[in-house]
Design a protein that fits this description.
Keywords: Lipid metabolism. InterPro entries: GLR_AS, Glutaredoxin, Glutathione-S-Trfase_C_sf, Glutathione_S-Trfase, PGES2, PGES2_C, Thioredoxin-like_sf. This protein has 14 helices and eight strands. By secondary structure, it is of the alpha+beta class. It folds into two domains: 88 residues, no CATH class; 307 residues, Glutathione S-transferase Yfyf (Class Pi), Chain A, domain 2, CATH 1.20.1050.10. The structure holds glutathione (GSH). Glutathione binds next to helix 5.
Length: 411
């Protein structure tokens, strides 16, 4: 924006200068012409005062041309800046049709399964595989949903430094989920899309998962800095296909969507600056990640030390940048407490145990999932001490671990 304004200003200046010069030349030529022929015409043409005085006439006509020049310059400048603006905006959306739908694999990538979660109630036959970092908040969110509804799934722990386990895919983030449908493997990227697709599928299994996934295309576009981005714009929408569940209203659907988005856009950004607040806390956090992610089992010793020590130091530095980028308070804990108090107060206002009412909804699962990613960190202990979120959190944990939402598996 600043560049466009500077360019417009420069063009206005140049144009008005050129116009002044051109106007002056035209004036001189016309002056010479009319002086030779008919002074009256010359004066009438260039002076509105009708005083047959050459110096007045010259001044006013210069003024007029100056003004004309400035307005033309401004016009050209505005046109130029509009052109520059539209020039960078026009190729913003790069997809020709509907965006890119998630990939389908004939054979699954061959990696050692880190852990198997088996829930006998799962009758979907989807044989889900989750590629994850154990303590990534987005992966924790997906696990919270899978566990709550009672899906069986395999976990493949991805090495956060070498990331060999996701070399097979162009999408370079975790979580990724593969689902076995009709003899092939449907890939799903992005935690919120995975959750929306699976929840939509559970709501109405007549729409096959491969069909549901097609409702979440990835759109490619260039952002304001000209960087290529991919985004699933409707990732928080559930595909009810006009068949809204009985216990939902338009308002509760909207509220669930907004809080899910809040979990991703606000709450998640509180974590790193808090967890990596000091070097000691960063190291403590990484040691807990290593323990809970069983890095000793999955990675070689040198890989583990590399991740723990280099990771902790790097994140301590990055945490400070993230604090600024996301406008956290100087005391970063206060921002985290504020966010959690906001969540708790909204629930108290509703007078229900969960944001979803009597039972958790996807927003409860999202907020719980995000917070569970720091459960073993000093930050989480501080959070329990300084806010009243503990009761809701442990109630959520109990519901998730007992697969309290699994009744949906049977219709
Ligand atoms: N919008 C994505 C964000 C996923 C994400 O940023 N994941 C991080 C891990 S927490 C990641 O994989 N970053 C790339 C990397 O580690 O190289 C989602 O909701 O799944």
């Amino acid at each position: 924006m600043q560049n466009a304004a500077m360019a417009a200003l420069a063009v206005v200046k140049v144009c008005s200068q050129v116009y002044r010069n051109v106007a002056f030349c035209v004036y001189r030529t016309r002056e010479a012409y009319f002086l030779g022929r008919n002074e009256f015409i010359s004066v009438r043409l260039f002076s509105t005062h009708g005083v047959p005085n050459m110096s007045n006439s010259r001044k006013s006509s210069t003024l007029m041309y100056g003004l004309l020049g400035i307005s033309m310059g401004a016009l050209v400048g505005a046109g130029y800046s509009y052109h520059k603006k539209t020039e960078t905006q026009s190729p913003a959306i790069l997809n020709k049709n509907m965006g890119t739908t998630s990939a389908v694999l004939e054979t699954p990538p061959d990696f050692q399964i880190s852990r198997k979660v088996v829930v006998p109630a799962d009758n979907t036959g989807l044989k889900l595989t989750l590629f994850q970092y154990t303590t990534c908040p987005f992966c924790c969110k997906v696990r919270a949903v899978l566990d709550y509804y009672g899906f069986s799934y395999n976990i493949i722990e991805v090495n956060p430094v070498l990331r060999q386990q996701i070399k097979w895919t162009e999408y370079k983030k975790v979580p990724i989920v593969l689902a076995h449908v009709d003899g092939v493997y449907q890939q799903m990227n992005d935690s919120s899309m995975i959750i929306s697709a699976l929840a939509s599928y559970l709501h109405d299994r007549n729409q096959g998962l491969e069909e549901v996934v097609k409702f979440y295309p990835s759109i490619s576009f260039t952002d304001d800095d000209g960087k290529l981005k991919n985004d699933i714009l409707n990732r928080y929408f559930l595909m009810y296909q006009g068949n809204i569940p009985q216990d939902k209203t338009k308002d509760t659907i909207l509220k669930e969507r907004q809080w899910r988005k809040w979990a991703d856009d606000v709450l998640v950004h509180m974590l790193s600056p808090n967890v990596y607040r000091t070097r000691e806390e960063a190291l403590q956090a990484f040691n807990w990640f290593s323990e809970v992610g069983e890095w000793e089992k999955h990675f070689s010793t040198w890989e583990r030390y590399l991740v723990v020590y280099v990771g902790a130091y790097a994140m301590w530095i990055i945490g400070k940048r993230l604090k600024k980028r996301h406008n956290l308070k100087d005391n970063v804990r206060a921002s985290l407490y504020d966010a959690c108090n906001h969540w708790m107060k909204s629930m108290a206002k509703q007078g229900t145990e969960f944001m979803g009412g009597e039972m958790p909804d996807l927003s409860d699962l999202a907020v719980y999932g995000v917070l569970s990613s720091i459960e073993g960190c000093v930050t989480f202990q501080d959070l329990l001490q300084h806010t009243s979120i503990g009761k809701w959190y442990y109630s959520m944990k109990q519901n998730v671990q007992s697969h309290a939402g699994c009744s949906i598996m049977n219709g």
